[in-house]
Amino acid sequence: MRGLVLTAMLLGAGAAQAQVADLRSTTQFRVCADPANLPMSSDDGSGFENLLAQQFGEWLDLPVSYSWFPSGMGFITKTLRAGTCDVVMGYAQGDELVQNTNHYYTSVYGLVTRRDGPLAGVDHLADPALRGHPVGVVAGTPPATVMARAGLAKDMRGADLFVDRRVKDPLGGFLAGLRDGSLDAAVLWGPLIGPRIKDDPDLQFTPLLKETSGPRMFYRITMGVRPGEQEWKRQLNSLIRRHQDEIHATLRQAGVPLVDDYGKEMLP
Q1: Which residue numbers delimit the Solute-binding protein family 3/N-terminal domain (predicted)?
Q2: Three-state SS for 187?
Q3: Collapsed DSSP state (helix, strand, coil) of residue 69
């Protein structure tokens, strides 16, 4: 009887694994993405994650297709878990909703200021120079926690973390505030803001590499695949390893600030 139960369990596990494997397309590189999350992704294909997806498609010799859904609650459930796509580009390492590949870049939060502004020389959030100056920050992000602990809560000018970027542009609001003087700084995620100001003569991005307390300011970025799809993950990991220099080149050209795996220094 015990042998029959064990056999049934093994058969059930095998069927579940086959069911997971069957979800992945072998004729397309199917990507889950936000249609209005520039500079990362856009349904017009202009985001840097779109460019990376195209490169991965070429390395796999597969055409790229998309399952579009706004970032935020329900994104993974409605796309990757529903089987409408097979990979999420640009996923932070450690999230339990997906299985992470190896990371393909590491980036950092930073302080965006006017080059000639009063906070142009600030490079850490505990700097007393920040006090009394209006600073934009996205609610719920690690820098918001560090700033609150540093006594800067009254100086923070917040924006929501999850918004439908088809109708709202909180980063655009921060940039407008920096340009018109209603903000003296904004603390933002490098891949979101770096490409938007890389050619701006008036604004600069200073990476927060000197923080010593609170949540870390740097994160390793992976691709997300469904739990159980080990062969698919290994295939993507192999591509990341073999094409790392090309991946970094695409990110640098886009203006994404890159740091080493420990968040200690900027990569050239």
Answers
A1: 28-266
A2: strand
A3: coil
